[in-house]
Write a structure and sequence with these properties.
Chain B: Has a role in nuclear-cytoplasmic transport of proteins and mRNAs. The complex is a heterodimer. Chain A is of the alpha/beta class. Chain A contains 16 helices and 20 strands. Chain A is elongated, with a radius of gyration of 36 Å. Classes of the chains: A alpha/beta, B alpha+beta. Chains A and B meet through β14, α10, β17, β18 and β19 of A and α1, β1, β4, β5 and β6 of B.
């Protein structure tokens, strides 16, 4: 049907042929009503140039008519029931659309001049132009309007009906003519990129564990748009691509990585290419070495090498790792103090937390560096991968010396951290340093992004500094937007107790001591209590811990342990 | 030693080393995992989503037990802090934050000192899910 040869447009007989007109596709420039070399036989209306196959049809002056009206008018007089129009656009004065095949073309041809617009003009000439179509050409990428949200929802429902949960199988055979979609006028043509991508997205978001997928009868002529499925649906084992338009086995390269066990390709042009079955199987297995069934035929099992280990599972993720109770207390005390100043509105007092030669820098996720509401952080983002040619900026963006560090921190938006949610990983503790990574969530409390939730990962490196205690030498902060899940969980949990041991009831003197200690240290009651408990309710000892003298001793002790263990 | 070299020079040097390290590390972890432990100190610690692994033997076992992965681009700053996305076989792609403490050590194999990882801290951004 599509193989009719032609050389340039030739026009089927129409009464307008009786007029000698220049050989062109029937379009007229100028508006309706303008003077021109028109015959008295011709009304002031538009001509449709229609071409068979994926070529364009045209309705000159079609622009002045509403697309929906035009198409429904055509359809109302036309004998074809299915939607006729693949792509519709206006080009100057012409409205052009594509039709599927010659049957549709002929049917439309018959309705030439049968449609009257509201002004009484006979609106449509249909001229049947059959133009060269030797190979099916892909529809032009002219109008790939993405599916609207409402349509996507319908598509999702439609796919849900075609999904078999017990088999983890999805049947998208000839999806284009699914009554649920047709009745809503939704175009889902899987050989078009936006349709395929929409379908893959729905699978990824709803049924990413999919094992079996049927894409037969969808006129697929290439698999580029399906390639993402390798990453997004990694468990896919059974794939049916039969009765499509794949021309060569090289299309399968785009799906490399899928661990297919069953594949169907019959009814594609590529099937006819092989002289013998063995070559065919071999070519397909090159892409899918684990294949056991091809086109319904069971294959002899492949013989491999015993290199593969059973697919490993990832170790489970855990919360904070502190190394020891002692370090945990030290760090928690430190963080409590640090963030109560950080969130207070004036970060100046943090000067006491930093070493003279401290250095600080900031970064944000790579993909967001050109966009979005992390603007406050963007200009100071120091991603050295992006600065290889700009050592000056690279240098400038490190804040060096505690004055500069704290001055910069004071310029960052005001925050409120969810202390309860902080996760701490202790990287290293040695005789000379303690390095730990804090992650969590905070809210901005002023400025343009007020009430935005951010997530952060912050590496602190601290040293013992004289008799002062924990002193920050390096501070590197990574900020990103919080995910919806993180926002949901933020600020809801009550403050955790630092230890899991049951809290004994306190005697009156203990309660007094607790209140005093909490006041002196600025720590909340829970941590104050912990500190006091750990020190047998000896106020002075507990206070010393807090002011860091013990920290220094701790560093010394670690040093000794380290040496003994080596 | 450090006091005779000015800060600016240190920064530039650090950037160059970090860049080189990141290339080596992520290439190694994708393709030559058996050699990965050689980048670590004998007593290095890895904290992986809250799981602590110390010492070369334990590290070696740990890396062997991970499914194979392809790490992708990240961003680094001074003390080699990276962020990126990674996809382990049979799992979906996930964002991660990672940071390394590198230290220079004398090497039996070369005249020059070599960088060794003293600690490695890795966490998925969505570890709690």
């Amino acid at each position: 049907h599509r193989n009719r040869k032609g050389r340039g447009p030739f026009r089927a007989p129409l009464y307008s042929d009786q007029i000698s007109r220049p050989r062109h596709r029937g379009g007229h420039g100028g508006g309706g009503g303008g003077p021109g070399p028109r015959s008295r036989l011709q009304d002031d209306d538009g001509d449709v140039t229609m071409v068979e196959g994926p070529q364009d049809s045209g309705i000159p002056f079609g622009k002045k008519y509403d697309k929906d009206w035009l198409l429904s008018s055509l359809q109302s007089v036309c004998s074809i029931k299915a939607p006729i129009c693949q792509i519709y656009h206006t080009d100057g004065n012409k409205a052009q659309f594509y039709v599927e095949d010659s049957t549709t073309a002929n049917a439309l041809f018959k309705v030439s001049r049968k449609i009257t617009d509201k002004d009484g003009y006979k609106v449509i000439h249909i001229i049947c132009n059959v133009t060269v179509i030797m190979n099916s050409c892909p529809p032009p990428a002219l109008i790939h309007t993405d599916l609207k949200a409402a349509d996507l929802e319908h598509l999702k429902q439609c796919m849900a009906k075609r999904f078999d949960g017990s088999q983890q199988a999805l049947d998208l055979n000839n999806i284009r003519v699914d009554p649920d979609l047709v009745s809503q006028n939704i175009e889902v043509t899987l050989n078009r990129r936006n349709s395929m991508l929409a379908v893959i997205k729905i699978i990824e978001e709803n049924i990413p564990e999919l094992i079996c997928l049927n894409l037969s009868n969808n006129r697929l002529y290439r698999l580029d748009d399906l390639a993402d499925i390798v990453n997004k649906v990694p468990n896919l084992k059974i794939l049916n691509l039969s009765h499509n338009e794949l021309k060569t086995e090289r299309e399968l390269d785009k799906l490399k990585g899928l661990k297919l066990v069953e594949l169907s390709l019959e009814g594609n042009p590529l099937s006819g290419h092989y002289k013998n079955q063995a070559d065919y199987v071999s070519a397909v297995r090159e892409r899918f070495p684990k294949l056991l069934k091809l086109d319904g035929h069971v294959l002899p099992p492949p013989i491999g090498f015993d290199l593969e280990v059973a697919p490993a599972t990832l170790p489970p993720c855990k919360a904070s790792y502190f190394c020891s109770e002692e370090i945990k207390n030290i760090i928690l005390c430190f963080l409590q103090q640090y963030y109560s100043i950080y969130d207070s509105g004036d970060r100046q007092p943090l000067l006491d937390a930093y070493h003279d030669g401290a250095a600080f820098s900031l970064s944000i996720p790579f993909t967001l560096q050109n966009a979005s509401n992390l603007g406050e952080y963007q200009k100071d983002c120091r991603n050295i991968r992006r600065m290889k040619d700009d050592p000056t900026t690279r240098f400038r963006l490190i804040k060096h010396t505690r004055l500069n560090v704290v001055a910069f921190l004071n310029e960052l938006p005001k925050t409120q951290h969810d202390i309860a949610s902080l996760i701490v990983d202790v990287n290293t503790y040695t005789a000379t340093l303690l390095a730990f990574t804090v992650s969590g969530v905070f809210k901005e409390t002023d400025g343009k992004s007020r009430d935005s939730f951010r997530a952060f990962s912050r590496v602190f490196i601290a040293v013992p500094a004289g008799n002062a205690g924990l002193c920050i030498v390096n501070d590197e902060l990574f900020v990103r937007n919080a995910t919806t899940e993180e926002i949901r969980r933020a600020f809801v949990a009550p403050a955790p107790t630092p230890s899991s041991s049951p809290v004994p009831t306190l005697s009156a003197p203990q309660q007094e001591m607790l209140a005093a200690f909490s006041l002196m240290s600025g720590m909340n009651l829970e941590w104050s209590q912990k500190c006091l408990q750990d020190n047998d309710w000896d106020f002075d000892r507990a206070a010393q811990i807090f002011t860091g003298l013990k920290v220094h001793q701790w560093f010394t002790r670690i040093n000794e342990e380290f040496i003994y263990k080596t | 030693m450090a006091s005779t070299v000015d800060f600016r020079t240190l920064v530039d040097q650090s950037c160059r080393y970090s860049d080189e390290f990141v290339n080596i590390y992520y290439d190694c972890i994708d393709k030559r995992r058996r050699n990965l432990t050689r980048l670590y100190l004998d007593k290095a610690t890895l904290v992986w989503n809250g799981n602590a692994v110390t010492g070369r033997d334990a590290l070696s076992e740990f890396f062997e037990s991970l499914p194979s992965k392809q790490a992708t681009q990240g961003q680094t700053t001074l003390l080699v802090v990276t962020a990126g996305s990674v996809k382990f076989d049979g799992n979906k792609q996930r964002y991660f934050n990672q940071n390394f403490l590198l230290t220079a050590q004398a090497s039996p194999n070369s005249d020059q000192p070599v960088w060794k990882i003293a600690s490695d801290c890795f966490r998925f951004q969505d570890w709690a899910n």
